Amino acid sequence: MTSHSLTVEGLSAGYGDRLILRGLDLAVLPGRITAIVGANACGKSTLLRSMSRLLAPRAGRVLVDGKAIHRMSPRRVAQVMGLLPQSPIAPEGITVADLVSRGRHPHHGILSRWSRADDEAVAQALDATGTQELAERAVDELSGGQRQRVWIAMALAQQTDLLLLDEPTTFLDISHQIEVLDLLTDLNHRRGTTVVMVLHDLNLAARYADHLVAMAGGNLYAQGTPDHVLTEEMVRAVFGLDSRIIADPTSGRPMMLPIGRHRMAAE
């Protein structure tokens, strides 16, 4: 799969009279996994919405292969970029299979028909997310975790080179969180898919991301490798939390241990 570039230049964006992002610059590493972290309301989701063309910038621009994304057609954007928003809404009564099949729509022209390749893409997406047995069930009957996996399956069915996910592990228990992040890592390694995701868990972000972006107050506080970004100083500045950073015994990546106000002494 050919890697597409995704770049943010001087981006300012917000809602109504409220400005959230202020002059951000960010170059997403093609073929790598980028995780965006930060405290609530720091602008993580606003950045992802702007990068995916859902939110028009007040200033600056988002470029895909050097072209302004907000001047590209929605269909063209959907051919190169898959998106899992924070709170997606499915049409009432739609089945899992039908929803995942919608991931194929950007690849169809007015006269094109459903093909074997479409069937295979949907089947692979269902298999990868462990949702085959849910295919005939209505999406609104599923648990939160099941629905999240189905939405990820729809994004995978698009088979895009760029994949943006806003909190893809929301509603998932820890075992399914690891399954989803392993799935995204496999997709990145097998197909070279560029993955950009917002995550709340700093330790999972540091374990799975090649590139870590820390945001604070609508600005980029730090970006780079997890070793460079996940520091006690960053955690204190971005989250207002004292912590200790140690090596993850499994991955060797940095791991954050929070220090609360009530420190429990070892017995």
UniProtKB/TrEMBL annotation:
<keyword id="KW-0472">Membrane</keyword>
<dbReference type="InterPro" id="IPR017871">
    <property type="entry name" value="ABC_transporter-like_CS"/>
</dbReference>
<protein>
    <submittedName>
        <fullName>ABC transporter ATP-binding protein</fullName>
    </submittedName>
</protein>
<keyword id="KW-0410">Iron transport</keyword>
<keyword id="KW-0547">Nucleotide-binding</keyword>
<dbReference type="InterPro" id="IPR003593">
    <property type="entry name" value="AAA+_ATPase"/>
</dbReference>
<keyword id="KW-0813">Transport</keyword>
<dbReference type="InterPro" id="IPR027417">
    <property type="entry name" value="P-loop_NTPase"/>
</dbReference>
<keyword id="KW-0067">ATP-binding</keyword>
<keyword id="KW-0406">Ion transport</keyword>
<dbReference type="InterPro" id="IPR003439">
    <property type="entry name" value="ABC_transporter-like_ATP-bd"/>
</dbReference>
<keyword id="KW-0408">Iron</keyword>
<dbReference type="GO" id="GO:0005524">
    <property type="term" value="F:ATP binding"/>
</dbReference>
<dbReference type="Pfam" id="PF00005">
    <property type="entry name" value="ABC_tran"/>
</dbReference>
<dbReference type="InterPro" id="IPR051535">
    <property type="entry name" value="Siderophore_ABC-ATPase"/>
</dbReference>
<feature type="domain" description="ABC transporter">
    <location>
        <begin position="6"/>
        <end position="242"/>
    </location>
</feature>
<keyword id="KW-1003">Cell membrane</keyword>
